[in-house]
From TrEMBL:
Domain Ribosomal RNA adenine methylase transferase N-terminal: 40-214
Chain segments annotated as coiled-coil in the UniProt record: none
Pfam families: RrnaAD
Designated name of the protein: Ribosomal RNA small subunit methyltransferase A
Catalytic activity, EC: 2.1.1.182
Gene name for this UniProt entry: rsmA
Species annotation: Streptomyces afghaniensis 772
Length: 295
């Protein structure tokens, strides 16, 4: 009889040994909290609905806990890592623990915010444990840069998860909620306890699922034009939209005209509007400019 092969995934002792060998001490600056529980990373892969034909991009793989779980299931995995030491070590970890899948792994040593292309086939899924301090900008950048990503599952600080998945009218509905909704249907997909991380964070974590819209939002306004309205509306979220959008429109009267034309009350506040309504407002500023130019 052959002895059973040891689990290829990283457990608590493996993570600590790897970190010690590399001289890695998790830093708060990069929000590094390494997952040390194999059941948790497998649960993340299941929740992300990763298929055998998926090409997955992972941001911030760290020591490789989630990377290995993704490689068990996906066709290919490309990991984007900014940290020099972690990026240098990850390919060896993959080769040592999952040699038969190592040729399906690629590493991009870069800041995810600067990545606009990836090696190999276009990614179909994004799965990542994102540091709380850069979670929203990294997520939005990846969705914009890689329209082939159909499904996303990110693990983020619980508070960030709430904001991303918040519906209009919620107290925590804001810029991340609207911008994420521009790309995808967004929902909370679970909670993650603190004890599955090393070091254990001071905050709870949550999973957020984003399924890309099958058809882009129907609007004649561009994404930057819509996002400009969103930013202006929430920069002064306690003000009515007539007042909050005055700078964006050129005057309070121009803001009111765009709002009325879009079918939105000038007395409403940004937190009550859907992404479709923000898009209509952007269209009507655009229309005003076109009318002025043709006059």
């Amino acid at each position: 009889m052959t002895s059973p092969t040891p689990d290829a995934l990283l457990g608590p002792a493996d993570v600590r040994e790897l970190a010690a060998a590399l001289g890695v001490r998790p830093t708060k600056q990069r929000g590094q909290n390494f997952v040390i529980d194999a059941n948790t990373v497998r649960r993340i892969v299941r929740t992300a609905q990763v298929h055998p034909d998926d090409v997955v991009v992972e941001v911030g793989p760290g020591l490789g806990s989630l990377t290995l779980a993704l490689l068990e299931v996906a066709d290919r995995v490309t990991a984007v890592e900014i940290d020099d030491v972690l990026a240098a070590a990850l390919p060896a970890t993959i080769t040592a623990r999952m040699p038969d899948r190592a040729d399906r792994f690629a590493l991009v040593h870069s800041d995810a915010m600067h990545v606009t292309e990836l090696p190999g086939p276009a990614p179909t899924a994004l799965v990542a444990n994102l540091p709380y301090n850069v979670a929203v900008p990294v997520l939005l950048h990846m969705l914009e840069a890689f329209p082939s990503i159909e499904r996303t599952l990110v693990m983020v600080q619980s508070e960030v998860a709430d904001r991303l998945a918040a519906p209009p009218g919620s107290k925590v509905y804001g810029v991340p909620s609207v911008k994420a909704n521009w790309y995808a249907e967004v929902k909370r997909a679970g909670a993650i306890g603190r004890n599955v991380f090393w070091p254990a964070p001071n905050v709870d974590s949550g999973l957020v699922s984003l399924v890309r819209r099958t058809e882009p939002l129907k609007t004649t306004a561009s994404r930057p034009e819509v996002f400009a309205v969103v930013d202006a509306a929430f920069a002064q979220r306690r003000k009515t939209l007539r007042a909050a959008l005055a700078g964006w429109a050129g005057s309070a009267a121009a803001a009111e005209a765009a709002l009325v034309a879009a079918g939105v009350s000038p007395q409403a506040r940004g937190e009550s509007l859907t992404v479709e309504e923000f898009a209509r407002i952007a269209e009507h500023k655009q229309n005003q400019h076109q009318e002025e130019e043709s006059a």
